[in-house]
Amino acid sequence: MHYASYKKAILSLCNNRDGYSIAELGRLLEASIPKVSRIVTEMVNEGTIVEKGKMRSEGGRRAAVYGLNPDAGCFVGVEVGHEGLIIAVTDFPGQIIQVIDDIPFTLTNTEESVSALCKTVMHAVDRHGVDRSRVKAYGISLTGRVNQCTGYSYSYFISEEKPIRKLLEEGFGSPVIVENDSRAMAYGEYIAGAGGGEETSLFLNLGWGLGMGMIVGGKLFYGKSGFSGEIGHFPFFNNNLYCRCGKTGCLETAASGLALHRLVGEQLDAGRQSVLTPEHKEGRAITLDDILSAVKKEDIVAIECMEEVGATLGRAVAGLINIFNPELVVIGGRLSVAEHYLMPPLRSAINKYSLNLVNKDTLIKASILGKRAGAIGASLLAKDFILSEMQY
Is there a contact between 382 and 136 (Cβ–Cβ < 8 Å)? Predict the structure, then answer.
């Protein structure tokens, strides 16, 4: 291998572990100790890696351990939601150094809106004391169908000639990766959240819709065309309810924020008493946030509807467990804030409908990162992209 190849290999190794000694790197790279020592010294001088401390030793001289340099740069991840932005900043090794919540912004299908998104993010980063000259790349998490390889989003499809990634790179003046929100959340939880080293895991994004991110063999699974994870559009029911995709009977029609909103509305129309009744009688629109707030207030109607959504989702997750036999299933997204009412019926349905022999080794967890998972995951994916593409 050339020196450049060795350097990229060392960056890749250090991206997956906090540090290595020169002897360990030599063994893994099948290279001599003097050669690895020279390469490591060059990389320290270049600023990409740094001595992280000394290895434990029973006696004799302790070997130095080298890892990614926190001061080598940073990465910015942006979750673009329907109601605003969340921004996460991670350092060069991937530690979270800043999270900026709830920035008002609505992205539309115009180049002007994409330009405004870039300006809004850069202004927020500047305002919170992040030196933009140190930003190596931006990761953008978007709802809907996103092809990470081509850079196209089919929810924000602006031009056949120019993918949204290209527009974002022009706006930021830096490399950009775009990713589907459920996959970004899955990766954030895998690296920095509920994931505990499990190399096969499923992340269910229970928001207004229903999406899924899959970690297979420690990596995001994309499928042939980059559109894997559309669990919300699995034809699960004969309920004649139209889904946003235009078909009927999709899982999303009964296990999503949209479904929760419909169920609560039906109960209010039927005359059930709720903390939401006054607004409903006045003809005011009930929002998903209103319903989640009602759940927190222990409103019976909202809780019962949340439990119904949890039971329905649990039945679907039971099927996923039977198919994938994963080590971990994480439930996240907006509805996971009500985990105390969502998770018990979900677990009960999993136990009822999945095969005991298959599910006994599967952990079921609620999201740890919450609404920040997508932004954190996007930042970490931007880091992975840059480390794999660095030129020497």
Answer: yes
